[in-house]
Amino acid sequence: MTRRPLVAGNWKMNGFVAAVSVLEQIVAGARALSNVELMVCPPATLIAGFAVAARGSGVLIGAQDCHALALGAHTGDISAEMLKDAGAVAVIVGHSERRQYHGETDAAVRAKVLAAGRAGMVAIVCVGETGAERGAGRALEVVELQLEGSLSDDSTGFVIAYEPVWAIGTGRTPTPGDVAEMHRLIRERLVLRYGHGGEETRILYGGSVNPANAGDLLRVENVDGALIGGASLKAAEFLAIAGVYR
Ligand code: PGA
């Protein structure tokens, strides 16, 4: 079983048009990294321009969220079809910041995963426990339920990102042992539900990944790459993390 690692940068609400220079540095650095797929998920305003700038480089462009429907009266929303049309090949769904600040439930996330599939895009489906849930010994149970509820039996072509909420943007990370335990559980559940497809699904780790800890976190069994927030805004740091797969 060979799962090609994926290192994806989630820029969140950061980046103006001039940040294409950061993407250009990533494109240049990517030439030396043939063992790993690189993806940049900028704000929606930058997707079309980034897709042009990255064309032919192998660096993929992704989006950070989508609406569940293809079109209609939904002021301010963007559909998966529109993101695809702009040049994105993937979309992050169910990020904890969407779940927390936009009240997204597992059912809402599940509808977005279906929307991504309908548009021919890869959904990067985020799951992860809060600090309180881990403290109460409920981390595995919480993630298992999120995974169950955020996917449909006929979901295909998705990527999972395990992102402990307490590790996002805090500089704190789980131990490699805790990551191994969680990724093993996710793998087991995926294989039970999707058979061979569950073996092939990539499971990313996300939450305070940086060049110093990437080696330890990304070499854990069943970790097939990373979803990177803060460190993805700097080309050198992003490339150094992906360099774990050199
Ligand atoms: P971080 O964010 O790397 O800044 O912790 C990760 C994420 O939210 O995807």
Give a verbal description of the structure.
- The radius of gyration is 17 Å and the shape is globular.
- Helix content is 40%, strand content 15%.
- It has an eight-stranded parallel barrel, surrounded by six helices.
- The two termini are 19 Å apart.
- The protein is α/β, with parallel strands linked by helices and 246 residues long.
- The model has no long low-confidence stretch (mean pLDDT 97).
- It is built from eleven helices and eight strands.
- Helix 5 crosses helix 7.
- 2-phosphoglycolic acid binds next to strand 8.
- End-to-end gap: 19 Å
Residue windows where pLDDT falls under 50 for at least 5 positions: none
Look at the helices and sheets and give the structural class: alpha/beta
The gross shape turns out to be: globular
Helix content: 40-55%
- The beta-strand count equals 8
Strand numbers in spatial order across the main sheet: 1-2-3-4-5-6-7-8
User: Strand portion, in percent?
Assistant: 5-15%
Along the chain, the helix and strand elements come as: EHEHEHEHHEHHEHHEHEH
What is the overall number of helices? 11
